[in-house]
TrEMBL record:
The keyword Amino-acid biosynthesis does not apply. The chain crosses the membrane at residues 12-30, 42-60, 67-97, 109-128, 181-198. The keyword NAD does not apply. Keywords: ATP-binding, Kinase, Membrane, Nucleotide-binding, Phosphoprotein, Transferase, Transmembrane, Transmembrane helix, Two-component regulatory system. One of its GO terms (cellular component) is membrane. Its EC number is 2.7.13.3. It comes from the Bacteria. Pfam families: HATPase_c (PF02518), HisKA_3 (PF07730). The lineage of its organism: Bacteria, Bacillati, Cyanobacteriota, Cyanophyceae, Gomontiellales. Residues 164-174 have a biased composition (Basic and acidic residues). One of its GO terms (molecular function) is protein dimerization activity. Residues 233-298 form the Signal transduction histidine kinase subgroup 3 dimerisation and phosphoacceptor domain. This is histidine kinase. Residues 137-174 are annotated as: Disordered.
Length: 430
């Protein structure tokens, strides 16, 4: 990725303020002084133009580039002081605002101190009156209060009041020095105030940018959550249809097969099986209606989990002629999501055993540990290779239910070795 050495001015408002200050500098520089007529000083115009053009593209990236850019501006400031420009202070203010954008927050106090030192050095090395007249080729002014320059009195004239003139010169010098240092203090206060102002502007700009990024992320997350929510809801409905309808239809099919076998040798028994098959068909129809309308919020039908599991075991016995051995250690007031998950896993496991396992022994065990509820479903059927059957919707549904509760799910099985389903669900016993 290529890094740009220069960037556009990030704050148009500060750029416009720079242009206004440059216009003020130019207006002052071309204004009459020392009794001269209005004149256009091309060197002054060139200095202002160079500084203005440097502000259109600010350095970015490496610190060395930013330092060199600031040094170049410093040289231009010294040149402005040398040629006699009157508003070196305003040029320093412009460079200061620009430097706040070039350097990070951790460097801004140093930048303020550096610009202040630049102003002091420039105005000390090149005082305005002397540098202005010297650059224009004019002789220095004669200080009438200087004892070496004042005219010598004639021999017959009375001596001038030397003491009074000396006191006046000292007072004038003190006033000038006081004004100078007062202006320097004022300039320092302006620089510090400007730093606080620019810090506030940049902080607001950064806050707006971060807010825009946060809003964009929120919109992205909202769309993603909506898509995930729709996907999860579709998966939930699919699991409900598979778990409830699949179990009922499997049991119905087994009852019908048994009824066909018993119809010739035990008609009465066959009739009982057909009545049970009819009941299972009604349950399947009810499950379809509830699942399609997504009203299947409580598959336990207001029963406690223990009763619902024993009911599943009784239904399994009617279809398979064996009754699962149930060892249930369930805590009271089990949360509804955990109870439904355990019920659905047992229901799906018994359905798969009925369809594929040909087992002669089934064990359903639930243990309540200090921090988890452990579910084990074991059969001695034909078994299977889990890696070849993990894409089945039933197994996938069981795994998703457990993972949705931050639990762990495992299947241990092999060909002709039965199957063991292990689910561990976090639960803190009160």
């Amino acid at each position: 990725m290529q890094i740009e050495l220069f960037m556009r001015h990030p704050l148009r408002s500060l750029l416009y303020i720079e242009w206004i200050l440059f216009a003020v500098v130019m207006a002052i520089e071309v204004s009459p002084r020392d009794g001269q007529m209005l004149e256009l000083k091309w060197l002054h115009v060139g200095i202002v133009a160079v500084l203005a053009l440097m502000g259109l593209r600010l350095p970015a990236g490496k610190l060395l580039v930013r330092v060199l850019f600031t040094i170049a501006q410093t040289i231009v400031i010294f040149l402005a002081a040398y040629v006699g420009m009157r508003q070196v202070g305003l040029l320093c203010v412009i460079v200061l605002m620009r430097s706040y954008l070039v350097f990070g927050r951790q460097y801004r106090l140093w930048v303020t101190g550096g610009i202040f030192a630049l102003y002091l050095i420039a105005t000390t090395l090149f005082p305005y009156r002397q540098r202005s007249r010297a650059f224009r080729g004019l002789p220095p002014r004669t200080n009438i209060t200087n004892g070496n320059s004042r005219p010598q009195p004639s021999p017959g004239a009375s001596a001038p009041p030397v003491d009074r003139q000396g006191e006046s010169a000292q007072e004038t010098r003190r006033e000038r020095d006081g004004f100078k240092w007062g202006f320097v203090s004022l300039f320092a206060g302006i620089l510090l105030s400007l730093q606080l102002l620019v810090d506030r502007i940049l902080a607001e700009k950064q806050a707006k940018e971060e807010l825009a990024i946060a809003n964009q992320r929120i919109r992205t997350y909202a769309l993603r959550a909506q898509e995930n929510g729709s996907l999860q809801e579709r998966n939930r409905i699919a699991r409900e249809i598979h778990d409830s309808l699949g179990h009922s239809l499997t049991a119905l099919n087994l009852h019908l097969e048994m009824a066909v076998k018993l119809s010739q040798i035990q008609p009465e028994k066959s009739r009982e099986v057909l009545l049970e098959a009819k009941r299972l068909g009604s349950i399947a129809l009810k499950d379809v209606r509830e699942s399609v309308s997504t009203l299947r919020s409580d598959p336990l039908h207001n029963q406690d989990l223990t009763t619902a599991i024993y009911k599943l075991a009784d239904e399994f016995k009617l279809s398979n002629q064996i009754r699962p051995a149930c060892y249930l250690d369930l805590p009271p007031n089990l949360p509804q999501p955990i109870a439904i998950t355990i019920y659905r896993i047992i229901q799906e496991a018994l359905t798969n055993i009925s369809k594929y396992a040909r087992a002669t022994e089934v064990i359903v065990e639930i243990r309540t540990e200090p921090t988890t509820i452990e579910l084990n479903i074991i059969d001695n059927g034909r078994g299977f290779i889990p890696d070849n059957n993990m894409c089945g919707f039933g197994i996938q549904g069981m795994r998703e239910r457990v993972l949705s509760l931050q639990g762990e799910f495992e299947i241990i099985s092999d060909t002709d070795s039965g199957c063991q389903i292990i689910a561990s669900i976090p639960f803190v016993k009160e």
